[in-house]
Amino acid sequence: MNEVDARPLTEGSEGFGAVPDAFNRLWTPHRQVYISGEERPTTKDSAHCPFCAAPKRSDEDALIVYRGKLVFAIMNLFPYNSGHMLICPYRHIPQYIDLTQDERAEFGEVTAKAIRTLKQVANPDGFNLGMNQGEVAGAGIAGHLHQHIVPRWGGDTNFFPLIARTKAIPELLSEARSRIAANWQG
């Protein structure tokens, strides 16, 4: 204790999250909800799975772009970029190795069609394709396999997501779905 003002010489950590320090840390306690899984849908079974529910709704309402025999393409409800789609099998399975040979073939073909369509309607400079399998790998909905197709443009990343927790998406999901569905490469 400092005898002059009776305060401890060391500070507690309570106020550090609100004040930048010499290391320019960015404190993001809001991410802990995602990490702990408090707001993730339960998808151990298909009863609460949004990917199992989507095909039972209209394409417009569910944001489905394309329906195949074994898989479908749907807009991501929380897109990284405009045009961000997911390819999902109709079956509620967690991993790529659980696909049948026919599902795997259609999964790949629908992925290629989605990329061709996005090239035509959005002219991206590149794509990120990926599957996070299992919660530990970052899958938000781990019980139902899905592949991300994220169109990318030079300069599409900026400070907004980190500093302002904001992602600028230049079109509404319903408009992107309509444009992509209307131009689907068959």
How would you summarize this macromolecular structure in one to three sentences?
With 186 residues, the chain is an alpha+beta fold. The chain has a single domain, classed as HIT family, subunit A, CATH 3.30.428. It has 6 helices and 5 strands; from the N terminus they run H-H-H-E-E-E-H-E-E-H-H.
Name its key features:
186 residues, alpha+beta, HIT family, subunit A, five-stranded antiparallel sheet, 6 helices, 27% helix
What string gives the helices and strands in order? HHHEEEHEEHH
Q: Work out the radius of gyration.
A: 21 Å
On the 0-100 scale, what is the average pLDDT? Answer: 81
The tally of structural domains comes to 1
Helix tally equals 6
Name the CATH superfamily assignment: HIT-like
The CATH architecture term is 2-Layer Sandwich
Write down the overall geometry: globular
Termini separation comes to 75 Å
Q: Oligomerization state of this entry?
A: single chain
CATH topological fold name: HIT family, subunit A
